[in-house]
Amino acid sequence: MPALHDRLQALAAALAARHDTLALLALGSVGRDTERMDRWSDLDFFVLVRDGAKAHYLADLGWLAAVHPLAWHYRNTVDGHKALMADGVFCEFAIFELRELAAIPYAPGRFVWRRDEVPEGLALPQRPLPQPSSRDWLLGEALSSVLVGLQRHARGERLSAMRAVQVAALDRVLELRESLAPAPPPARDPYAIDRRIESRWPQRTAWIAEVAPGYASTPQAALALLAELESLLPVPAAVAARIRWLAQAAADSAVEAGAPRDIG
Predict the structure, then answer these.
(1) I need a labelling partner for 48 at 20 to 30 A (CA). Which of 57, 87, 114, 169 fits?
(2) In what order do the strands lie in the sheet with 70-75?
(3) For domain 2-123, is the CATH number 3.30.460.10?
């Protein structure tokens, strides 16, 4: 979006006017993946500074507020902040000295501005991106999360159960499916399998609603995830049987508590 592009350019100009700054590295949808940028995008970036300047840029955000007033901000890591600008633009950024980048994992970005002493190649991470897990591990983690989640649901730990099945197990199932049948472009966020899943797998949105139905419907989600896993890889019969038994037990416990039974 032009507004985000203009904001980055204004920030780059403001940083270039300072003696202790080295570069502005844009990341995410405002970095290399600008085709994904829309009105809902955030400003994700690194500011590279000279040795000894990092603490000042972290402690005093006047350099950012000078580009546009800030409505709110807080320090979310030892290296950076999250901030909301007065016009609604949300920023997530970190401050690094040049020597630190070699040890920092990050997705490939693009320099909006840099001094000549900053190598262009630093737009790419020196550390490798997270590598895909093995299919056996993904299957085991998905099944384990479903088992534990159903037990917690039957006990009455509905929130914990929902997160175990509809978040942890679902993430592993998505990763497993992707390893077997990669989604078409756009490429996914290397740190979050769920990002833009609807645009990457538009034909699966009805299925997503089945496996993420919400707080009270973990047994149904568990059975839908089990069916998906069984369609992808061999699932040990004893584990599948236990999951189905637990789903029924969890549904029965809901009936005893006064909720209707419906596990599909």
Answers:
(1) 87
(2) 70-75, 80-85, 90-97, 43-49, 21-27, 110-114
(3) yes
Give Rg (Cα) of the chain: 23
Place of tokens 């047994």: 219
d(CA 213, CA 196): 18
Q: Select from 25, 187, 191, 203 the least CA-distant residue to 98.
A: 25
Residue 103's pLDDT is 87
Nearest-10 crossing angle of helices 135-155, 170-180: 160
Calculate the average pLDDT of the chain. 88
pLDDT, one tens digit per residue, over 101-119 is 888 888 889 999 999 999 9
CA nearest neighbour of 15 among 54, 48, 52, 53: 48
Domain range list for the chain? 2-123, 135-256
11: left (phi over 0), alpha (psi -120 to 50) or beta: alpha
**pLDDT tens-digit readout, 163-220:** 999 999 999 999 898 888 765 555 666 666 666 777 777 778 888 889 999 999 999 9
